[in-house]
Give the backbone structure.
Amino acid sequence: MNDGASAGGYAGQVLRVDVGGGSSRTERLPGEWIEKYVGGRGFVAKILYDEVPPGTDPLGPLNKVVMAAGPLSGVFLPGSGKTHFGAKSPATGGYGDSNIGGHLSPELKMAGYDVLILEGAAADPVIVVIDDGKVSVRPGGEYWGKGCIEAETALKRDLGEDFEIAVIGPAGENLVRFACISHDFGRQAGRTGIGAVLGSKKVKAIAIRGTHTIPLADPEGLRELGKSMYRACFSKPGFREWTPNGTAGVTDWVNEIGAFPTRNFQTSYFPEYKKINGDRLRADIHLTDKGCMGCPIPCGKYSLAKVAEGQAHVEGPEYETIAMIGGDCCLADINEVGYANYVCDELGLDTISAGNVAAFAMECYERGLLTEEQVGRPIAFGDLPSVLYLFRKIAAREGIGDLLAGGVKAAAEKIGGGSERFAIHVKGLEWTGYESRYAPAMMLSYATADIGAHHNRSWAITFDVARGRGKMEGKPEKVVELQHVRPLFDCLGVCRLQWVEIGFDLEWYERVFPLVTGRKVSWDDLLRVSERVWNLTRAFSIRHVPGWGRAMDRPPARFLEEPVPDGPAKGHLITADQMSELLDNYYALRGWDNNGRPTRGKLEELGLDDVAKHLWG
């Protein structure tokens, strides 16, 4: 077994910080973790499964926040700036994680650590400062209450510009269940509410500075292959068409296939989409491009949005924000979408969930399920002041915001009146930017994603279009394949967009892995790691949430009962019987029982014998 403290690509240490007591300690990175889980998301899943017991309150002191780098993080390769955060999710009660770009994981490794584990809870606000081998928990009261961008600016001023900062905003401080972590003035670990877990621990920020080098097995070989990888990116046919608009460039395609969330997913086509698409962003508000470490295709679009309320610099909006705040809330002006994006960034709200929750509230208001007295003012689709009002109330947990701060699932349970049917989520995590009533593979992807509704686990909608959107055959197979390939990037610590958007070949990662780590493994070996992690996160949620299984692997009633009313997908939906058939086939392919529970045989096959004992005795 490899010694994690001496393996190439790894700093070799785990840092634990007790934020309540202020103490810290280091441990050697176990070689078993490297072999079985690789890094990043794999380390997060392993630690949370082992160390967070069932029954733990997601916002209590026994929950832990894990931050982890991968072996390729910080190595000068395309898109090597990815960092993984994880905790028991306050949004779902199950396994939660979120990925963020920028420069955090390279800095963590150069400070000497592959993993940071935050334990306990402070009585008063703190910041965690990691300056190479010097670790301190410092008073953070002067930053508490500040927005993410304001706080990051102040921390860089006070600590030094060369510190990399992860910070929460007022939403995290106030325990909003979809609060995010912000970094680099516009990057977010947005999903599953980990910002609220930091808030529950009174941790305003994590600041990291490192000066060490990252050990490499074959520096010269890596240098040559790395240059070839960049040349391959630049030569791809999609390189020039992708870079100008970034993810916002997807907007036209999603509308034209009838998959764009509109009016709280009442329909799937937004007639005014050209007012908020990538071309409009580029023409009206774009200032410059912005990328993460080592990125050859910078998707960040730094912009200046101007509205009646004022103007703001913002990174974005990217596609998911355009979909959920633009289409789903019916804002038909890229300046308005950009400004709402900025407000979310400053407050520390995940734009995906925030847009979804605001749209849900507006539909409830239209239907008379929320009154003007309850809301505090009239609210309407297409009205920017309505959207901003809801975001600010949610972040402060004031009035209607307190009801909505738990997300659409919790809000619908309190509002009633049939609102559960159009609360668009899976397992408590709000749906993202692809309406899927005419996309069976994408619908199955959302239903079975391990953290709740999220597109990045298996972006299968292109397969739906290519294979035939009305066909069910081959869809479960493709979802399982993608659920192994895509999360593997999170284990390695690199961005998947080179592969997704410009067709960068997967074989490059098999070639580069031994040059970094000294370990020669096949792509199939790496995919086996991803399958192991997928089963581990499923087991975590089964142990923590009663009923986590088939009954929860399903889309909201709207998608099973209401055909799309207009647009390119008009008349289509996935029936309950079709959904059941998709799940049957998916579970069989995974080696799970008919309730979606990993079998003893599958877990033992993956080397998860301890997990098999927990689930099966």
Q: What stands out?
A: The two ends are 28 Å apart (CA to CA).
